[in-house]
């Protein structure tokens, strides 16, 4: 139902106009402190004539920064004269969350990447998701939503896609991911706990766009190598789409290694509350039975720690950051080479 | 005045008794939810006859974990028959903070390492500090308070001491730090923003103990190399003091490199609110003018970032973790080789 | 869908009974502190035989008071013998918000005037909106929802209506507004940030009632002249409808001046965070280019303020109160004489 | 609509497998602190061949404990060899609420027993309700949801059912309630403020299960006699269903006395804010006019208290615990002998 | 030092004037919401000529109510003509806490009965304690501070005193306690976790008043028998002091039984987090080894509960109410017959 | 004791150096989010040779803005070449409070103008107060602390002083106030609820400075006439002190009218909770018995309002803003012509 109702957000830019426009998408949010005010979500559009459209987003989770920095730099770099077609850049997609560096919105406590396609009459985060889904994604041939591990996780810099059910789109995803050129790229199958059909990327895929993503680092910090990968990858994507000319292409040092994350056994979860001591590092190759972590209980330090081993083999893609952990927290996930 | 008033905390252990005792220091805290309850601060004492006393503390800041894990392991390792003298281990010194993994106490919002010598009639954190200062430190020949960078900072694993004003004690500090054997050791002079005379270590020094500290990593996680350094260092300290026999000595792979942190120019602070992109890594050697960081403003991504350079030279010891930053946040500090 | 489901709220009064009844609408809200309790929303009905029904509401925003005082006074004044027909008065429509003087509900943080037609199965504020929309508005020939600027805005006392799409209803709105007799009356067209079709008034218009509103002052205070206008206006409306006799008519000192608020250029928004210094006062006539405000940054007081000018001309109807402001806050809005 | 969408929760147990399985239902909840973590809702299934299924739940309100203890004990008692059919036990149905002992969830502030049938795409509590409604209840011939008065109310231990609209089911409810064998059992008719069709029990009835409940005590504590009634009652229910053999039957000391709670006059509500002094105790028989309570105002102790009398007669089933009370809080409710 | 500085609180009554005066002690508290406002702490003084002074306080803990109701009633009963001397009644001693029914103040989170003698320059609760200590207690020959168990504990109604170090005062305490006539009276020796020298009573004793207390029930409710004991006891105390005439004496049905609470072994504490199931009731006599409680873990219901036994013998005076408990919470305390 | 301990704050400016220096006073505040960061309190010093020193402060209460704007403007205006002596300007004295526009600090909830002379080892606000008291005030011949009514009060723009106990200083206060030239000036005697000896001004007076203040408006807004009075007044003060030349003098349009605020009867307080309707306006002259306000209770709108009359006569200087009010809130205060 929400797809047919109209967004209440008002952009200060005109997506159909040639040139470089910068401004805010106005989300009117009537509060005790500001009865008629709006939340100013920054947006930049660079357009030159006919051609494909790329939609680049970051800040979907407010505590993931490599994408925010890469887009902030790209916004200053791109000029209409360089391109053919259109680039829409939204560096702080969940603006209230990104402004304070939190994964979720401080206004409605929602994780924007778990509520697509959003709702034009819902709380603030649902309204933003709906705007992106109903107003921006339909304009785009390709959408890349730039993520990192956020405050609680750290990732080897990687690109990714959720495999499209449409085989043509899937081939386009693979081609675009090769152009993006991250050292690792993984294909999400039935990965649990990662948003299912409620992510921005799933929304893009539903509407027929080439939907890509990244995990560029994490720990709530800016990772230098993840940032470099993103900056090169975004330009290469624009070249790949024909929006930028070949002179902007930068050859990745190595071809991307395709991986996948299959089932729940690729994930390690905390079995108890306590202090998490990791026993492997990002990028390590493990086999079933490799010790993964200990959970210590300094509040009763005379008791032994709980030890956890991997149940599957693969490469350690992702590791929890905060040592203090609760039963059910994800400590690691693995990936293994993509079949075929 | 607070030194002469008596602590209201009640230990379940008897510090004068031989053997291995484990229990809680009871801090009665009368709340709406628990009118007569106590906060159970874990404490373990291992004693065997006459001999020196070592006091090992961690969890002074609740989000610093290498020390908590090292002490939790040491508690299970040490038995009275192995030692001569006494080892007192307090792995969650600021228990309420450590239980939830926060730097400061959730009860009174106090940073325990900024309020020594504490107050027996103050709020919870002041009472704990007072107990350590007035009851535990006076028992100890040597005190080491195990810190890391916590949630907001990351450190190269290092040992440290605030130089005692007593030259004999200072020589004892240097000897003990050599025994501890961290790859780096720095001497705090007039370091700003690091607690001055209000730290646990300053309390120990005031009472004539050999007062040491560490910075074993950070980012709110357990750093494997920092943990290994701490485990070796603590045993070596016990050997150095004659509490453990020489058979427990583990030779550090390299002699510690002594550094110092002199004046305010060794620190880099954020000049604006925004997203912090570091341009150097821990351990890098820099000179005055080396670019240190950029601060980006994705909320107005069309504006240029602010660039910051180092004003002094040295080795990058410490780096901020969270990218979202405010004017006045510390981004880095340096150290340089200790003179003489 | 929500229109066809039944409200769970239970009134203590019988709207169909003659006489003066006072009591509460019970909204059962099962909380940790009160498992079977209800929120007591005050309601008064005065009825005498057949005749038209007027529904008067205030406290839709809990920090707007002139309407609350006017209705509290009117409730004590009106007796069945004075009237023909029915008057339903609900002085604290968003009871939880009004009880603590906040624009939005402390229970679900919702702005009641942005969620009509409500939801009988939603959180508390949605349930109240649904009750008004589905149970009270259908009883009413005329609905006036009494607003003021609230804590963040101040208004010249004014009446208003959102122009009904039904031309007959629109003429009735104009006639009723003339009877109400505020010095200014404005017609809302496409005013942005003011609730669109999600207000109580829009709900009333959708159901065919004559839907009116007011802005009687603001700043979270009771404005004496706004209160006087409301007290006279409400009685005049009852006379206009034939519910009260002509002897209750009080001639307004001047005929109302009809204005409208057309497009986004009638609004001035803060372009930066800082301290807002207004350069015009309520009621001033401005032209495009008239200086409107300065935004000062006392945190870096050596930097110049940002100056803002009006982009349109008109009368200053509304001004922000709190000086500390954020990018996107509404600082002023204008109105101009209604065409035709 | 929500009934046809699929739950996103993932059980670690297989409801169709014989044997005793214990694990968690994983509710993936992506937060700032744990991006890929799940909430571990405990579940135990004991199954042996074909036969009826009983679903036992507690912790629907997190501060009601007799049921949680009874199920925790039953989980350790039941073994597959004892039974024929299946028993599904979910002792902390609203896990986040039960973990902290609150009626409502700390995550979304929702009362789980007011939101059935839930929503697979809603916030955490709506997702749990939906899982129970769409995945567990359809497996069950009989459902009993074990409640008590919670933090704000205290009950005489009692069993209860909301009378099914299906007369066959109603007879089965009565038979099962006789087997359960609480000293009192009441039938909910149009009881106000008790959840209507939005409770777990209503969900079970809608799907054709025999839906029962209890009120086993309250005050946020474990009531010994309520616990004993529950332990006996649950086993007797399993015998009644043929899941356990007759050797597990324990004859209740007295046949249950059936009561009902008819209309709003059976409830007493606070007419003012103040300190509630009850004038009757649980189990007292009252008549219309019996003094029920005084409300004192110690903030103006010179003013007289407000006195309240019962408007109906019956047995005092339920009494408010916290003395500090607000207008609209429920102070008591009565029940009277069931007609017929 | 604090004893010599002057209170900033301003009473509306004149303690030296004959007659019955009721008003507020004004505690000026300058907040964002009320820059020049005061907290109105109710106080009533009844005085008639020369004679002894009794100071009666309640609401020291805001969630203890029997004393508040007893004093609210006594305030309306006492008239100057009945008495000789003076009665000062302060029913909501910690006014901000009592107004919301919390043990501790919502303003500074302080427990007033753990901060005597207070501080005239401290936060709100310290200022109130200081006023009572420095202005009211010095006027009083006898002080009784009426407590109950509060929200987390329940008590058999009892009177009590902390034994004065002055043997003459101690004899006067015993005599007054006999007059008060509660069924049980206990003498606090070194009771741990109950406030030591920081209570109102200790302040009264330090200043040479006869210092008494009570525990009249608890669970955050009004206990009818505890209230009756308090009402009789307060009048008897006034007769005992010669303030009221003998005609107001009501003979207690039984002489009080004197008990004491000696050492830490009289207390039972939770050894783990979980759900507390009590195995004894208030008033039960126990011996060492009597099972006291089980702690259940419904979050892992397959694990066995922890069982706790009493370490000492005596009568169960006090029991924890909330089932959800944390390591260190007090579950019970005992008392045994007073020697001699 | 606090006066002899040294502040831990570190200014970036050198108060003894000639020229114009702008920077921050660094208050190191070690938090979870920023372990070594400082709060950057802005400070500007303009100095030229020998001569008197003026200290101008605002933002002592963070929601009072006219002073902040006046100093922000003056900072940009003053250059060393214009002056003889020194001007120290601190526009956001309570920086954390001013940054969010709150009267009190969000860090420790303290009102800075109720804690002088502060404490170098206290929480953040106490440290700032101590720095001003011990480091800045001793440099100053004259101190003016610029206040307004803040969020809860509104004032006729006025200057003021607390009468110095030193008659010479008092004459200097009067002379300086004449130079400042506000239309009204009042002398605080025993004004209650306004900070006594714990204000910045009292600190300045204790140290022998000419201590002045203002109330320039309020309601949390910038008042244009109050701002104009402050801008003229500050320059005139500098001329009066000989720091600026006579060419900067601007003659006030009228000589200031001296008033005083004597006793508690000059204040009107709310006798009940409810909605405050003022019956007089700022500047009105009233006599004892003039109706001051009504308190309405829209939650029970059938009950009559409470009416309050003035007990003294005078001019209405100050009026409460927020209509929703609590017993004890100050609604108005009066002033009357200064005797002699």
UniProtKB/TrEMBL annotation, chains A, B, C, D, E, F:
Keywords: Hydrolase, Metal-binding, Zinc
Cofactor: Zn(2+)
The Succinylglutamate desuccinylase/Aspartoacylase catalytic domain, residue ranges: 51-241
One Pfam family, short name: AstE_AspA_cat
Molecular function, one GO term: hydrolase activity, acting on ester bonds
InterPro entries: AstE_AspA_cat (IPR055438), N-alpha-Ac-DABA-like (IPR043795), N-alpha-Ac-DABA_deacetylase (IPR053138)
CDD domains: M14_ASTE_ASPA-like (cd06252)
Protein's name in the database: Deacylase
